[in-house]
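U., I forgot to send this yesterday:
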Amino acid sequence: MKNILITTLIIMLTLLSACSNKTESPTEENLVRDLELKNMKLIPEIINVVEKSNLTLNIYSDTNGSLHFHGYNIEFEISKDIINSLDITVNATGSFPIALHYSEESDDHTNHNHGANSKHAHNHGSHEDDDHGESIIGKLIVNPK
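Result:
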C-alpha cells in the first residue's frame, strides 16, 4: 500500500511539474530587442525571432538616418543620441536584410525626415536628386513558429 501511495505521489508531481513548465515557459509573442547603431554598424547584426511575434526594437544610434526592413517594406527614421522605438508584428518568415539609409551630408537629413518615430512604405525608385546612400547593416530572421 505504501508503494502505491509513493508511486501515485511521484506520478502526480511529475504531471504537475510538466503542466507548470508549459505555463511558465516564456512565449515569444511579445519580444523586446535593444540594438545599437554605432559607426554605421548594427549591434547585434542579426535579430532572430519567431513568426507571429510582436517585436519592439529599441535602437540607440550615433547618427541620423533611417532603417529599411526589406521584405516588410518598412522604413523607420532614427535620430542620433536618443532611443528610437519601433513596433513590428512579424508575420512573414525568412531572412530580411536591414539597410541603413543615410545622407551624404553628414547628419543633415532634412530631405528624408519623417519624424523621429515614423515608419512608412519605402520605394527603391529613382533617387537621382537625393544625396543619400544605403548600406546593408544587418538581418531580421523570422523563424516558423
